[in-house]
Write the structure tokens for this entry.
Amino acid sequence: MSDKEKLLAMGKKLRQTMNELSISVKELAEKTGMPSQTIYSILNGHHRPSPEKLKAMCNVLHLSMDSLFDLETNAFPIYPDPYKESLSYAAFEDNWFSPHGGERISVSRGFSTANQSFEMRESIFRQVLKYSDAQVKTALEGFEKRNLVIGKKEKHRVEIVVKSELVDLIQQKDYFSTIPQNYIFEMIEKIMDTLINKPHKLEVFIIPRQYFLVNYEIINREVILFDLGSVFLRQTHQSLLEHFLKEVEEFKSKYAIYQNRYDVVEFLKVQLEIAKPK
């Protein structure tokens, strides 16, 4: 489904709900504070609405914002540009977490970007991803917005990461060599501190590379999001969730090289010591 077709399908869903509730465009405009012309443009598939506008419309229509992206396909992001990835995450995670927050399970090659400092993230945008100044500005705004959502709603995070990727990061191998070492050390030390002093906030399990297949995260054990590079795939199917939740438990209890938080911290300490300038 093309972007145009997705916008048309979204507009059709919104219009259908308005008809069911007997809400006119004028009434919707008054309740959302949006111009009627903008609403017409969204309903006709001519305008890609921001998450804020969508949320305002959905609140009035008693419609799940998430359901708009579960029409004929589960593929998005809402913001298609790669440098707006964090904005896509922020918009949907804000919606997926319950009002009281919840748990995130993250299966990824490396540590979640939520662990990175503003300076480290900027360095990656500039040195690794080669974004322009304007793109870096937008990407950092998205990064900060996502961190606000995480800080407000994420109560517990489980991270399952690949050992070889962590070694490459800390020892600055390959493209990691373009990231200043002090940013990397600060992130690792922050993770170690959280594991020891705030174990209720973070768990880390380190697995061998051969067991890792795809990046994904699970929110509140209800929504699974696959990160396939330039495409996100969201699923809420119970059987699929159960499959990946079972995989997570196997990672934690069967395949993890390091699972005890003290063992994880010791491994990270050793890697930091190896990487220190001699």
Q: What stands out?
A: Residues 133-153 form the longest helix (21 residues). Residues 3-72 form a domain with the 434 Repressor (Amino-terminal Domain) fold (CATH 1.10.260.40).
